[in-house]
Structure formats: C-alpha cells, structure tokens
Hints:
- Chain A is an alpha/beta fold.
- Chain A has helices at 8-19, 22-27, 71-75, 85-92, 98-104, 113-118, 120-130, and strands spanning 3-5, 36-40, 52-59, 62-69, 79-83, 108-110, 135-137.
- By secondary structure, chain B is an alpha/beta fold.
- Chain B has 2 domains: 16-183, Rossmann fold, CATH 3.40.50; 195-387, Up-down Bundle (Dehydroquinate synthase-like, alpha domain).
- In chain B, the strands form 2 sheets. In chain B, strands 1-9-6-4-2-3 form a 6-stranded parallel sheet, sandwiched between helices.
- The two termini of chain B are 33 Å apart.
Amino acid sequence: MAIDFPSAEWTKAYMDVLNADPGYKVAGAPWTAGALTFVVKAEPTVGLNEDVAFILDVHQGVCRDARIASMEEGAKQPFVITGSYAQWKSVIRKELDPVKAMMQGKLKLKGNLPMIVRNVKAAQSLVENASKVDTRFLDE
Amino acid sequence: MSYDADLSFVFAHTPKVVFGARAADNVGDLASELGGQRAVIVTDAFLAEKTDLVKRLSKSLGSRLAGVFTGVIPDPTAPAVDEGAALARGLDADLLISLGGGSAIDTAKAMAVVLTEGGKILDHEGYHALTRRLTPHICVPTTAGTGSEMTLVTVITDPERGQKTFVGSHFLHPDVALLDPTFTTGMPARLTAATGMDAMSHAVEALVSTLRQPLSDAVALHAIELIAAHLPRALEAPDDLRARGQMLLAASLAGTAFSNAMVSLNHAMAHSLGALHHVHHGTLNAALLPHTMRLFAADVGDRFTRVASALGGATRGLSDEAAAHQAADLMQAFVHRVGLTTHLGELGVPEASLAQAAEMALSDGSIIYSPRPVMEPAEIEGLLRQAL
C-alpha cells in the first residue's frame, strides 16, 4: 500500500529499502560525514501546513536511523537540505537530480557542498532507493 | 550546436559591469550609488604597499573610505576572513571594495556574509541558504582569469579540517564588477599567461559540461574567441590597454559561463596536482587542457569545432571528432605560444605522484560535470601520463 510522503511511515520504509540494497552499501561506504536532514517546506495547498524535517543518519553504507524530527533538532545536523514539496516530489520520482538542483538553487543546502558532490554515487543511490518506496504524494 | 528536448537550466544574473580604462578612478561615484559612506578596501599587502592602486581608489573615495584590510592571502582561510570581517565591523563598514585577484574577491564576498549575518564564515557554509542582501561589494580585479567577480561562490579553506568549502548564493554576486584595464598592466608576463589560460579552461570546460546551457555557451564561446585573439598581444605589449581590456572582458565572460555551467575534469586534475605540488592553478590548467580535450573528443559533438575556429583552424569537411582533435592540437600550440608548457614534468610533477593525483581528482567535486562519466582512476592516470 502506498505510503504518504512525508510521514514517519515513509521515513521508516525508506530506511528499510536503503538497508536492503547491496548497491547502497557499496555506494554509501565512503560516507562518514554525518546525518542529513531533509526539510520539506509547508505547502498548504496539498494539506502540508507546516515544514516537515526528517533525519537520515547514514554512515558507511548503512542507514542507522531515520525519523521525523523537530526543526530545531534537524537544524543541528551537519547537512540540511531544504526544498518545496514539488521539488522533493521531483527528486523522489527521479525527475530532478538533487546535486544539480542544489547548484541551481532549487534545493538549498546548509553544510559542506564539496562533501556532497564528492559522494555523488551515494547521493544517486539515495535517490534511486527513495524512488523504490511505494509513495502516495499528497497532491495526487 | 543544439540542446536536448529536456533542457532545463537556471542562468544566474551577473553584477553591474562597469568597464573602461581609468573607470576605477570613479569608484567614489559607484560607492555613493550603493549608499556607501564607510568603505573598506580588501586587498593584500603587496598591492597595498608596492603599487599605487589603493591610492587611486582612495583618491576617488575621499571621506567615504573608512579603512583598508591588507590581510588577503592566497587560498583564503576562514580565520583570515573572520579577521577581515572583524576589522570591517570595527570600522562600521557599509561597503566592501575588493582589489586583487580571486583571493581578494573571495575574501570580500565572505566578509560580506559575516558582516550581514554575524557569527563566523564557517557558520554559513552551504549553497543557496542565504536569505537576504549582503553588505554591498564592488570588486576591482587586477588579474584577468579567475572570473570571481562574476560568480556566486566564495571558496574558503578551513585549516582545522584541512578542507576547502563553499558559500554559494545569488546574494554573493558582487554589486559591481569594475573592470579597469589600467589596473592589470602591472601583471607579470607569466601570471598574465597563466591567468589567461585559467579563463580559457573555464570557458572550454563550461562549453562541454553536463550543466551547459544556451546562455553560458554564448558567453563561453565569446570568451574563447577573445582570449585566442588578445592573450598573445597582452604578453607582447603589457601596456596595451586594448589587449588588457579584452582579456578582462574574456575572464569575466568565462566566469559567467562557469558560474552557471561549472568546470569539470581539467579543473579536478589541476586542483589535485596543485595541492600536491603547489604549481600555479592556471599553469596546470593550461598544461592539461589539450590532453583533456583529446580525451573527450568523441563525447562533445560539434562543440570543439567552434573552439578550433577561434584558434585559427579550418574544420570544414571534418567529422565532429576530427574537428575536436584539431581543436586540441591548436590549443596545445596556443599554450606554447603564450609561453607555457603542456608537459607536467616541466612543472616539477614527478611520475611517481600521478596515481595519487588521479585518485584525488576522482574525489574532486568538479569531476561530475565532465561530458561523460569518468569513474576509474586508471583513465585519469593515463591522461596524466600523456601530459607528463
């Protein structure tokens, strides 16, 4: 059954998909730079009335934790990537390359950009796995 | 040249450009336009003490000049930026004027972030995370190569982590790029050649980057034509203001191109070899560029045909790949013509370091914009061996 994005259930499903993928274990192996926070900006037209943050604690090809968090906790992580609902939907559907989106300002990054770019294979694998989650988008 | 059906791009706006011989002598008027009453010049000790450039700016600024920060260093560090910002804050600065090459401009960009947002520069590392206008910034380049006057990024070294990091935002575009050829006539020949070839590399790499787009292509091609036509003259006659001016324009155009389309493998290798052997960045880009162009000859469609033409080639009747090889050969001849080398060995790069340099290049962020994926260190090492 399709899971609403964003939600705690979606975040947990994403973690499970990541940890079941041998490809991510390899692509993500070099990543030791800390957790990522993804912020989905509020979009009242689809029923998302507040910003939502979820933290993905990935380390050396393993997702150790994934959870919805407060904005305050999310902001404390080494990398915070913020985008509109529409942009995140495009990323999950593999219609928008997230690194290219950061360069174009469609996604906003707090944190060390070179570290993200150097780990582009891990980033690509994160997106590939996000697309595997059976997702129900709020505007559909 | 044409584009894919799924073309999607953003072309960032550029600063106000004021160009002309002795244009910088009117910097005071530009300061007033920006509301600057307490300007701080950001430069290095050499330019401050050994040239009259600060004096020329000061004369025009008059009472609007609050002070001069002379602590700019090559590859600006976070502590140097924070020191400059503290000085500027102490002077109640409302305008920054960078004077110098890329290091001075990047330092002033970063200082503007700290002055506006507070804290220290490393508190603000990120891309497109800034949310408001910064302290106004006029930049006055004294080299023609870096293109930083047109870009939305500042590159800062964090000595504690031993890493370079970025702050990038449309708010980092300087308000004014003041391009005055009389400010570049003092540049020594070798630096003129190396910075000019850095600009050439910016333009050529932007032209074939995976982020290429129509507007960046247009300015990249024009930059290549200007460099091909005027860099030799700027070397033959250093006081020729026309040649110096064309090179300033070319560097700014190339900066606009790569600020939007990025650079790729050539810069990735230059970054790694520069870190290992402390060879000038532009000199390395020049040495590597013809070899990199050959590597991608089959991957760039007709894009190098225009490069060949700019360099005096005749490509009529040639396949795209053959024209690309001709462009690479002509680029190699051009590098030699401006007094630089295309052999890394002549720059003191030992064969024993090539494997390490290849590994480092593979982890450089620029590499992902190469016209085709380059994922294997052996391929890069092979290219470096050809360039040895």
